[in-house]
Task: structure prediction
Amino acid sequence: MTEVDTAHRPETRSLEAVFDPSSLAIVGASSVSGKWGYFISQRALKGEHRRPVYLINHKGNQVLGRDTFRNFDELPEVPEMAVLAVPLSSIEETLRSAIAAGTKAFIGISSGFAETGPEGAAKQEALVAMVREAGALLVGPNCPGVMDTETDLDVSWIQLGDDSLPPGLIRPT
Result:
């Protein structure tokens, strides 16, 4: 039997909060059908039978016929995961607020980071450092979101045509 060298193995952490969060907040939820906050809210609510989905809209406007919350302080519980569908100008403040509330997993939809050059890369590194310091997880920033058909989680902006991706494992052919 071969001995495993655990001293040089990177720390492993559970990704359950990313793929099967117990509760979810969509920050930047919008009633405007052309915005990411609308599209992602619509898709996230399809999994509401599995987990609470909280829509955060700083104006407190209704989204998809539902009442929204203005910020994390108004939520009835700390969401395990938050999707950040907010403009670059407010993502740092939003992330700080979510971390202060106790949220531990984030999906960053916003763009304007490393893909734009050195200044954007510096902003990205600052966000990553903030998340690491909090012991949290971040997918992104500037990503298409996350989808897990097994857990009824869809916080993505990926177009699937008829939206009929079946649940199950990914298998090589």
